[in-house]
Amino acid sequence: MDVFLASGRAHLTEETSTEIVVVTGNESADLDSIISAITTSFFLSHLQVLGGNPIIVPFINIPKSDLALRSDVLYILSSNDINIDNVYFRDDLPLLEQFAAKNPDQLSLFLVDHNIISETMASLAGVKVKGVIDHHVDEQLYKDTAKIRRIETVGSCTSLVADEFLRRATEKAASLDHRDGEQDMDEKHRPNWIKQATRMLLGAVLIDTVNLNPDYKKVTPLDLAVAKEILPYTGWDNTDGVFGKIDKARRDTSQLSWYDLLRKDYKEWTVSRHGSDDQTVKVGFSSVTGLVEKYVKRDGVDTIHKDIKTWSKTQDLDLLVIMLSDDLGEHQGGYQRQVILNPITDKVGGFVDQFEALDEPKFERIKSIDTDSFTKEGGRAYRQHNTALSRKQLWPMARKLLTEPPSQQTPNL
């Protein structure tokens, strides 16, 4: 697979008449998003499903230096011999912009793990979107331009990627083999990319679905079916061991500051505030592994608040929402979620009370980080009772509160 990745790096700096398709994940750049981008780009190139034989390159929507914050991603990539120097990062965005300016009809995007061009790539908003594979709320875009448009509610976007491409890719590899007229490849004769791709895909599926455990209400029938189909190609006997290794890497936050954790798995949106024709609100969502009590004990309440303020100011936010989660084990309360709300400007006045009053999910106030200044400025921290709801579900709820007047909002959102 590295041969494929290396072949794409030179083309953006060359004069070329060939179309280039950039496969990009979302701006949180978590394991699911990054693996979806890398494997989708490979499959699109291998299968040539877009027509016209374009050059396909993966794009990771964070600065390259920030990859060091993602220990689970580093573990998966390194254990599958993927050279990150062969992948485009946000540092390379100026190259894309320059190429698009010179060749406006020769650059297009393929979105994975999101279905609307992120604000960090707003400079390419005019570029044609040729494909979408995602598992978030459907924004109803790109229906006229996307040759592949698949948006389904599943546990992991990589499940959709595998279901869309893997069977065709392995069948093509088998048809090219022709060894003694055999149609099925044994493990010895499979090309190396099959093991690389399936191990990366299944690793992401396992993390997103907590090892396919239905108790966490993340896994869907498609995730289960894909995992069952993928496993024989990986060379693994079962999923338990590899899940444990990846999850251990993901949960190890010992080398990351609280500030780093706020920016590690982060998304932001700008929406129009209801009641105003021209007022916009910028909202950031950080997802953090570990509950807030852990970081209060490690770093202190003052550091927690200082870094929240600094990150909010750095991103020029009106509202920062921090979602925390951890599995404390069967005898310590199991899987838990918390939410911290940090309103910064008057533009989000009233939001905290509305959010707290939601019937679903139910929130219970916790005071682990309460200070006079934090609560006076509207800050709140909560335990979230319905742990099945992640950022994927909470952001649409928050957006509705911000953009629609109360008279248009349904009681349970």
UniProtKB/TrEMBL annotation:
<dbReference type="InterPro" id="IPR001667">
    <property type="entry name" value="DDH_dom"/>
</dbReference>
<dbReference type="Pfam" id="PF01368">
    <property type="entry name" value="DHH"/>
</dbReference>
<keyword id="KW-0479">Metal-binding</keyword>
<dbReference type="InterPro" id="IPR004097">
    <property type="entry name" value="DHHA2"/>
</dbReference>
<protein>
    <submittedName>
        <fullName>Exopolyphosphatase</fullName>
    </submittedName>
</protein>
<dbReference type="Pfam" id="PF02833">
    <property type="entry name" value="DHHA2"/>
</dbReference>
<dbReference type="InterPro" id="IPR038763">
    <property type="entry name" value="DHH_sf"/>
</dbReference>
<feature type="domain" description="DHHA2">
    <location>
        <begin position="243"/>
        <end position="402"/>
    </location>
</feature>
<dbReference type="GO" id="GO:0004309">
    <property type="term" value="F:exopolyphosphatase activity"/>
</dbReference>
<dbReference type="GO" id="GO:0005737">
    <property type="term" value="C:cytoplasm"/>
</dbReference>
<keyword id="KW-0378">Hydrolase</keyword>
<dbReference type="GO" id="GO:0046872">
    <property type="term" value="F:metal ion binding"/>
</dbReference>
<keyword id="KW-0464">Manganese</keyword>
<dbReference type="InterPro" id="IPR038222">
    <property type="entry name" value="DHHA2_dom_sf"/>
</dbReference>
